[in-house]
Amino acid sequence: MMSESLVPPRLVFRFSLPCRRRDPLWTDKGLEPKHRLASFAELDAAATPAEFRAAWSEAGLAFTVLVGGKRQPPWCRVNQPDDSDGVQIWIDTRDVHNVHRAGRFCHRFLFMPTGAGNRLDQPVAQWLPINRAREQPRAIAPGQLQLRSQRRPDGYTLDILIPATALTGFDPAEHPRLGFNYALTDRELGPQTLSPGSPLPFEEDPSLWPTLELVM
Description:
By secondary structure, the protein is mainly beta. The chain has one helix and twelve strands. Helix content is 2%, strand content 37%. Strands 1, 5, 6, 7, 10, 11 and 12 form a seven-stranded mixed β-sheet that branches. A five-stranded antiparallel β-sheet has the order 2-3-4-9-8, with no helix packed on it.
């Protein structure tokens, strides 16, 4: 009798997701990118409570995250980012898969539907350091990241803009392939990751991140 494999199926393959260009990338009403990104969590029989959509232009990267199936409001605290409901996104503008520690082209961003303000009802968008990184990307100014949050009867929607100025080394013409990963944290629905999840160190190891291919 063969023992059950301990290797997550998502770890066996190298995945690449197309991300289509859109212009304008962002408007006063935000953006709902039309191109839905495939989710590979089903390969590991993992939950997929969120749908991710993406678009790009020379101005940067935009994402829409739709979280559904909730009965409880999201729990978010700006001073407890790792414990809060929300989405983290990792970007490597060089798509390097042969190193296990992040460098200056690797970025980590946090987006939460609420958690800021006196009433904790304002959305949160911020840069976070990557654990064990050999070097951090250039600092970004407050307000560079754009986020629009909308409550839904069974969850919420996030419209996200990561401008090119917040991405060290972003150059779609020369480097159209990006390392890309995301992780949804939800106390009610459970986690969802693009790459294999815990106990693998996906938060800090860029070799585990799939590829986002910027196409026309």
